[in-house]
Target: Lytic transglycosylase domain-containing protein
Amino acid sequence: MMLHSILGRLAHGQGRSISHSPEGSSCRGEVERHFKAGASWGSRSGGDASAYDTLIKEAARRHQVPEGLIKAVIKVESDFNPRATSHAGAMGLMQLMPGTARDLGVRCAYNPAENIEGGTRFLRDLLDRYGGNVPMALAAYNWGPGNLESGRSLPRETRNYLEAVGRLYPVRHASRTAAPKPTPASLTPRRFQTENAVQT
Model:
């Protein structure tokens, strides 16, 4: 199953050191076509969220993931900048790692349609894996399922990520719909609330 392949890659950290940029990728022509003249889908400092509404609505409907959650992940991951590339090599709006993008069938991770489709599908897989628990799915999206399931304390980056997404998409418990605004501690999975966890 594709999910097991993706989760296996994440668990073993494969692909994390690969560095890609739109200029050096195989999809350079596509990136240039969409962004060179006018940056209608975003700019280096972030993009216009409304430019992606249709793509987000379609992916949300197709994969039964709340639109608000997809938008929150995109905002935190890339600030709606489709050209975003992390130091670890994550690419595009939803910051897909090269191996994950490949496993999801994403040909060009800098293409907003492909990136949103792949990222939303991956979120759906993680929501299913963690019984609909949004904070757990988000922690796995950021840190990797293998790391999350290792029993180690959440790193600061992941705690900050959960807080940032939680401010934009409030959830308190496992749910596919919006819930009351959480406290920072409620975004940290209970088994990871240690002395290093988010303080309220």
